Amino acid sequence: MRATRLLLCVLALALAAGGPAHAERIKDLVSVQGVRQNQLIGYGIVVGLDGSGDQTTQTPFTVQSIINMLNHLGFTLPPGTSLQLKNVAAVIVTASLPPFARMGQQIDVTVSSMGNAKSLRGGTLLMAPLKGADGNIYAVAQGNVIVSGAGASAGGSKVQINHLSAGRIANGATVERAVPTPLGEGEFVYLELNSTDFGTVQRVVEAINKNVGASPASAVDGRRIRVLAPVEPDSRVAFLGRIENIELQPLQSAARVIVNGRTGSVVMNQSVAIDTCAVAHGGLSVTVSSEQQVSQPAPLSGGQTVVTERADIQVAQQGGSLLTLKAGVSLAEVVKALNAIGASPLDLIAILQAMKAAGALRAELEII
């Protein structure tokens, strides 16, 4: 706990003492409308596993896939043939098709077990077509699966490092169909901010018009910017490359506190501030202990010796004095004030929620 508080204080002081923010390039703040990735998905079979594949009695789709593959290769199994396979696993293959990808280009794929295979380590993915949302095949994947984890088991004991039922294939898929990527509509190109912010949109427009001249940029709304660009593809690419490298000073981001209720993580940005408020925090602990005792019957009573259990329950409440938190204008002061309460990260979540409800937390509280 002390290490966590010390780390928060160091980060806060570093942010507070860091001075003004550095200028950012436009390419780090916006994206070109229409220039996007496309998700691909496919079904495949991984072979060559060392006895760690699917249990075919519980995954009938794996056996059916092998039978279909053998029929496609010209082998017909007699009716009623029972396959007991240990080195085969059914998998789902996923990939992202980058913009402007062309036929023959290679992309990375992720292979994930969909059955009860223990490990995909050492396996080889057989040819698996990858489809887009429209049902068309855009790439074909095949290759050796690389799994970063390792594991072993013997005598009822098991040890495992990282995840064994998913892996990657670098350049494992070949693009077979290109996706048209329109670079603007007619003479205009639209830039989209990564997050909606009217002030940042205005600054981007001013930076483009100042560096390019002739005022080609105008704001459409709080996220989109319309830019007049050359029509010729070569000139348009050069024009967009010039715009992307223009530097500007973005506005300070909105105050936000992100809380992860599952892990107890709390992250604040440098715009967070608090108003003067009073907080009382105290911990309640319940201790339950049990002790086994032997109950011995009297001599010649005909009773039986039995083991009884005696439980002892104790409730202790730690003192929680009322602490006044002064209004803070920087992240360092906010962290220092919250650390003075002596709360754990999980307790801090409840305190922040209460401060937000009381109107003392000047930030957006987002729980994920």
How would you characterize this protein structure?
With 368 residues, the protein is of the alpha+beta class. The chain folds into 3 domains: 2-14 and 255-283 and 319-367, no CATH class; 38-151 and 160-175, no CATH class; 183-248, Alpha-Beta Plaits (2-Layer Sandwich). Helices cover 21% and strands 36% of the residues. The chain has helices at residues 2-16, 60-72, 198-212, 233-244, 331-339, 345-357, and strands at residues 24-25, 30-32, 38-47, 89-97, 106-113, 124-131, 137-144, 150-154, 157-161, 166-175, 188-193, 217-219, 224-228, 247-248, 256-260, 265-268, 273-274, 277-280, 284-295, 306-317, 322-325, 361-362, 364-367. β12 (217-219) and β13 form a beta hairpin. α1 runs antiparallel to α5. The chain is flat and about 110 Å long. Mean pLDDT is 80; it is low at 6-20.
Structural class: alpha+beta
Spell the H/E element sequence: HEEEHEEEEEEEEHEEHEEEEEEEEHHEE
Query: N-to-C terminal Cα separation, in Å?
Result: 22 Å
What's the arrangement of strands in the largest beta sheet?
A: 3-4-5-10-7-6
In one word, what is the shape?
A: flat
Number of domains: 3
